[in-house]
Design brief:
21% strand; globular; alpha+beta; 12 helices
């Protein structure tokens, strides 16, 4: 594994989320605007609730960046919660005079009950605040730094929604970087205008019923070099590392690389990518069924991963549960929630995937400065032309 890592801290309704990123080379250009724009993308998407307009993300860089460039030291950033004043009593670090009433009706599908049992809590708020997807705001910031680094070696990210509920996109085209503007203009980040309309209708129907919807999104990375990852140990395989990172995001339940599940229902002659060679392109494949990864190593073809997101666990029409104090049947607690967050999950998926890929790229090319990193990448490409 490489040396790039991050650590986040903070609760959903706490004063701020903190993230420290260690291992970035010096000289990487970073602007607050680039980071804030990704945070804004994460908050968008049809199906999000009113809280997205209330709980604004206010980014502050505390260290590791000077005059717009990384220093090579850890980068420390804070995402302030502009709604903190309303929660300062409920989330006070010190014991308040009048302690808030505990939340004792855990939500099915959330970390509430398992967290209470594991850590000995009697109040679900001690669990749900950290288990909230709000934490992904900090991961989005960390992932944005990784995307900026990968951009220096030509990698470009595209994500789009493939399905919402039972509505699937009919488009068979793989989105390219030139398609990003159109995807971002879609309220559900869908590449298929017909499916977009049907997805919006499905979200509205679920909202009217007090229910939630999940779906599937795809992350595509163009311009990655071959050779990231390794086949020699289980924990160095790039597809395994990506799957772990993507499944660590709240509500994600499955990851497919390339053709994914479809590969299990066809013959080998239809599942693999035949290899060719010519003077202009060198080694190349006629198809990309493997999704840009073979044997745990990137091939140089576009990397593509599909991620399944379950419906959100907090329903306005709350599910049945058990009150942990009385042990009697009850209705689950209701925190502010969204009807559908699949479009926003695209942005988070890009970020966590970028961090894994940037780590693997630093592992491959090294360099204490961005110039060294880029130079090693260039030398690698030149060597491949002679292979």
């Amino acid at each position: 594994m490489g040396s790039l890592r991050y650590l986040t801290a903070g609760e959903s309704h706490g004063p701020a989320l903190t993230v420290i990123v260690e291992g970035l080379p010096s000289g990487l250009e970073v602007t607050p605007e680039a980071l804030s724009s990704e945070l804004a993308r994460r908050r968008q998407g049809y199906g999000r609730g009113a809280r997205m307009k209330l709980e604004a993300d206010k980014l502050q860089i505390l260290g590791g960046i000077r005059h717009g460039r990384t220093l090579g030291s850890p980068v420390s950033m804070v995402v302030h919660n502009t709604e903190w004043e309303k929660w300062s009593h409920a989330m006070s670090p010190t014991p308040p005079e009048d302690e808030p009433k505990p939340l004792t009706r855990p939500r099915p599908g959330h970390a509430d009950l398992v967290g209470m049992l594991k850590y000995g809590h009697r109040d679900a708020r001690n669990v749900l605040e950290r288990a909230s997807a709000r934490e992904t705001a900090a991961r989005t910031v960390a992932g944005t730094l990784a995307k900026l680094l990968l951009a220096r070696i030509g990698a470009e990210f595209v994500s789009h929604v493939v399905a919402v509920g039972g509505v699937w996109s009919k488009s068979e085209n793989l989105p390219a970087p030139g398609d990003v503007e159109g995807i971002e203009a879609s309220p559900v980040r869908c590449f298929d205008p017909v499916a977009e309309t049907e997805m919006i209708a499905a979200i509205e129907a679920a909202k009217a019923d007090g229910d939630t919807l999940g779906g599937v999104f795809e992350v595509v990375v163009h311009g990655l070099p071959p050779g990231l990852g390794s086949y020699v140990h289980w924990d160095r395989k790039i597809d395994g590392r990506l799957a772990q990172a993507l499944l660590s995001v709240n509500a994600m339940k499955a990851v497919a690389v390339g053709d994914g599940l479809e590969a299990g229902s066809v013959r080998g002659s239809e599942a693999h990518d035949e290899i060719f060679w010519d003077e202009e392109r060198g080694y190349h494949r006629g198809t990309n069924r493997a999704g840009g990864i073979e044997g745990g190593v990137t091939t140089g073809d576009p990397l593509r991963m599909r991620v399944v997101m379950k419906p959100l666990s907090t329903l306005r029409k709350a599910l049945r549960t058990v009150d942990v104090e009385t042990k009697e049947e009850a209705i689950a607690i209701v925190e502010r929630t969204d009807t559908c967050a699949v479009p926003s999950a695209c942005v988070i998926g890009e970020s966590v995937a970028a961090f894994v890929l940037a780590d693997a790229a630093l592992e491959k090319f090294g360099g204490d400065s961005v110039d060294e990193f880029v130079g090693a990448h260039r030398s690698w490409l030149e060597a491949l032309q002679k292979a």
